[in-house]
Amino acid sequence: MIVKRGKRYVLRSKESGRTLGVHPSRAAAERQETAINMSKARAAGHKLPPPPDERGETMRKIRSGKAKFLVPLVLLAATTAHAATVSCASGTLTPTAMAATGPSANVLVARAAPAVVFQTIRTAGTATVQIEISCDGTNWALVQNSSVTVDGTTTTAAVSLLSPACTYRANATACTSCSVTVLYACAGP
What we know:
- With 189 residues, the chain is α+β, with helices and mostly antiparallel strands.
- The protein folds into three domains: 1-51, Double Stranded RNA Binding Domain (2-Layer Sandwich); 53-84, no CATH class; 90-187, Jelly Rolls (Sandwich), CATH 2.60.120.
- Helices cover 23% and strands 39% of the residues.
- The protein contains three helices and eleven strands.
- It has helices at 26-43, 54-64, 70-84, and strands at 2-5, 8-12, 19-23, 90-92, 102-103, 108-109, 115-134, 141-142, 148-150, 156-162, 167-187.
- The strands form two sheets. Strands 4, 5, 6, 7, 8, 9, 10 and 11 form an eight-stranded antiparallel sheet that branches. It has a three-stranded antiparallel sheet with strand order 1-2-3, covered by helices on one side.
- The two termini are 58 Å apart.
């Protein structure tokens, strides 16, 4: 039996009087009551039709116009989510030139890009810079074949990564009177 208490609808057992469920609407309480009755009938050996397909009900509502407002909202959310996943276009990973050994203060998250390129530019001295990756933001590892040395004969060098994941930073492992800037650019839409 369904009893209204304030703004809620309570489903109670007729036999024991105990509460079986509390619902925000009468329809929700009736659905639970129907499900309980069907379960009891199946347990007693009665053959019952399968429960209604909720997807079919949703599609019926969409076709009837009750949920047509939802389709543009879902499409808008999907396009917005796709555009927001591209987290890098291009820029400077080291806004101020690196003049000593150590990691860059800034990091790059390039998870949605199909590729990313890091370019090291030397304006003074000699430096060795490597690109490092971290998936937890704490433990950093060298990206294979990413260590480049820029000296008196080489003023710039680049490293390209396909299908980047996690977080990246530049780390100057050697610096002799150096001044090095690291730029990045992501491929993709």
